[in-house]
Specification:
mainly alpha, about 80% helix, 2 helices, rod-shaped
Length: about 60
């Protein structure tokens, strides 16, 4: 598996987990953090990984 494919896969999974937390964990009370905010952070990290994977994929094709 290339780095681009790995970044795309990891980013998609991270984004999906973050979206699930953001959508469905609103009523869960935890003592330290709010799970909806953790979901938003995971979605941002996942989006960055997907963009990095796309950049690496297009860059490797042109080189």
């Amino acid at each position: 598996m290339t780095r681009a494919a790995r970044n795309l896969l990891e980013g998609g999974v991270t984004f999906a987990v973050g979206l699930g937390l953001q959508r469905f964990a609103g009523g869960v009370d935890t003592p330290v953090v709010e799970l909806t905010k953790v979901g938003v952070v995971l979605m941002c990290i996942g989006a960055v990984l997907v963009v990095t994977g796309l950049f690496r994929a297009t860059r490797s094709r042109t080189a």
